[in-house]
Amino acid sequence: MVATMIPVGERRFRESYGRYFEDFVVGDIYEHRPGRTVTDVDNTWFTLLTMNTHPLHFDAAYAAKSEFGRPLVNSCLTLSIVVGMSVGDISQKAIGNLGWNDIKLTAPVYAGDTLYAESEVLGKRESSSRPTQGIVTVRTTGKKQDGTVFYRLRANGSRAKEGSRCRRRGKLLNAPTRPRARQLRPTPAGRSIQTKRCSAPGAHSRRLGPKCKIRPGRLRNLSQCR
Fold first, then answer.
1. For residue 140, how many C-alpha atoms fall within 13 Å in the half-sphere facing its CB?
2. Torsion sign across C-alpha atoms 37, 159, 92, 168
3. Which of 56, 133, 181, 221 is the most buried (most CB within 10 A)?
4. pTM here?
5. Per-residue pLDDT tens for 115-134?
6. In Å, what is the CA distance from 162 to each residue of 3, 101, 206?
7. What are the beta bridge partners of residue 13?
C-alpha cells in the first residue's frame, strides 16, 4: 500500500494513497498487505447475500460428501478480496476499471485459509483521447499462506496523471452546478413574459405574463410550475 502525506496547512497533513500513472514501472511487482483470513461466516454471508444457492458453499453435510470433503469458499468472494487488496497500490487513483480478463481459479480455498496478493505491472501507455490519463495493465495473483496460487487475473484501468484533475467532456467531475435562471423572452411589443414549465403530468409550457390567457382553475396548483 502506497501512503503519502500532503501538506494542507500549517502543521496539518492529509493522507493520500495509491499511484499516479507516472509511478507505475513495467516489470515492478507490488506485494499487497495486510492479508486476510477467510472464515465460515464470511463464506456463508457472502454466498447468500449474492443469491448463490449452491449448497457446496454453506451446507457442511452436503459438502462432506463431495470430492472436497468440506465447504468451498465462494470464488467470487476470494476474487473480491484479492482485487480489494490491490486497491491501495493499483487502483486507488484510478479513473475507472476498463476490464478484467484471463481469470484463472487454480486451487480451492477453504475457511481458515489466509489470503495474500501481489500485482505485476505488464504495460502502460498514454491515453489517445484523454491527455490527462493513461492506461495501465497489471496481473494480480492470489496466494494462500503456504504459497499456493489460487487466483490469477489481468486488469486494465485508466489512471490519472500526477497534477491533473478528473474531467469529463471538458468539465470537472463533482463540480457544483449553477442553478438555471428563469428565462425572460421579449414579446413583439417589447414587453417581457416569463416562461415556466408545469411539472404536472401531460402539462405544457405556459407563458405567464400581463395578458395570460390561462383561465382560473385550468392549473389548480400553480406552485407546481417552475
1. 28
2. negative
3. 133
4. 0.68
5. 999 999 999 999 888 888 99
6. 15, 27, 50
7. 7
β-strand partners of 208 = 194
Helices (H) and strands (E) in the chain, counts: 3, 12
The CA R_g of the chain, rounded to the nearest whole Å, is 28
Longest dimension (CA), the chain: 89
Q: How confident is the model at residue 162 (pLDDT cuts 50, 70, 90)?
A: confident
Rounded Cα distance, 136 and 150, in Å: 23
Residues 219 and 222: their CA atoms lie apart, in Å, by 6
Whole-number mean pLDDT of the chain?
A: 80
pLDDT tens-digit profile of 9-35? 998 999 888 899 999 999 999 999 999
Please state at what angle helix 40-49 crosses helix 75-86, rounded to 10 degrees: 100
